[in-house]
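Here is an idea for our session: we take a single protein and study its fold together. To get us started, please write out a protein record for me. Start from the sequence, derive the backbone structure tokens from it, and show both lines together. Go ahead whenever you are ready, and we will take it from there:
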Amino acid sequence: MERVPMSSSIDAEIRKEVNNGDFKAAIAKLEKKRAANDNPRAVYSLLGYCYFQIGKYKEAIEMYEYLSNAYPDFQEYKLYNALCHYKTGKCETASKIVDSIDDLSLSEKIEQLKAAICFSKSNYAEARDHLKKTGKRDASGTINEGCILFKERRYKEALSRFQEGISLVGGYHNQLYYNIALCYYRMGKHKDSLNFIKTIVDKANDKLQEKNGEEDKEKLAHEVQQSGMIEALNLKAAIEYDRGKVEKAKRILKSLNERLEKLGVQKDPTTYHNEAIVGVNDNCAESINKLNELLNSSGAPPETFQNLIHLYCKYRFFDFANDMLNSRPQLASKYIQRDEYEYIKALIQEDKNPDEAIKQYDNIINGYKKKLDAINKRLEQSGGDTEKTSTSANERKAVVERLVCVVSNKARIPWEAKDFAKTE
């Protein structure tokens, strides 16, 4: 959201607080003015902006709904109202508001918001179409295109857009650095990912060190949340976990939590999720409860549903896994890939109908064999391109790991039935 021009009638002290990012202090004074009905348009406008900046979107909606009704000719208020509804996850409401705007001067911003709404619904082709309608290739459009490519698992192309985004914004940007680190992580380039993570954490620490003398813990907590450090350290923990260094991953998360607690920062959903994952071997029941709790709250990471299903299957709680898949089909279709879904269904079948499970495993194995053939062809045609070779090799490694897992599960069925001939 762009910074709103402040009326000269707004006190200089409030203007200074907003310019310095001290939104809570500004809100306290502005709310007193609102209660006194003092210059309502300027007050409501600035309150909407301040509430938006600290993530209090419902309060911001109240301001912009008032302004939209009181000043219908200034349709930018409608746009901000739609943006706030989008931030609260009310995409349908946001779409209806956006569709009611007919101010052509806002068309570029409208297309950007429509793209964001489509992106949140996983309609990536439509999101890309809306971005194209803006007719601009600026930093925002480039970064948004990178986000779409990332969701489409086109990590190399996404990385290129984010790198271009850095040059367009003119230097360090913690969210862009995190996006780049995430691309490298998905590409299996952990060393490159860790380099960008280190930069994010170092810059966050430097900034916090500068503010070390401040007594206002709320300001420090806000700095931590805006610095990208929480996301970066969670990604670092994920890398160590993937490397099999579970204890190191635990230490990273523990250190992060201690720092957040000291500042009074509430634990975010991603950290809570990752704690559940790294603590599985210590207490699987507690980890499962944490993931269930997350799933029933707002802001759960996309991996929550998938990992909960995996834990149910790992500890052979197949009825729970089946109930979860059947009761939440939208989450299943959104977060679980088709081959993975078929694998889970085969696992569930093992106890009830072993022969059917074997048939399902055979179908999955054949699918993976076809995937490997396609990947091997791409490797042959890579022409010495290091990036293509590396990406295809990582993809092949992932498919082989899944294939081995499926073959092992298929072999276990006759083994447990003591039909050793079929095991071979």
Summary: Residues 386-416 form the longest helix (31 residues). The chain has a mean pLDDT of 88. Residues 269 and 404 are 32 Å apart (CA to CA). DSSP finds 24 helices and no strands in the chain.
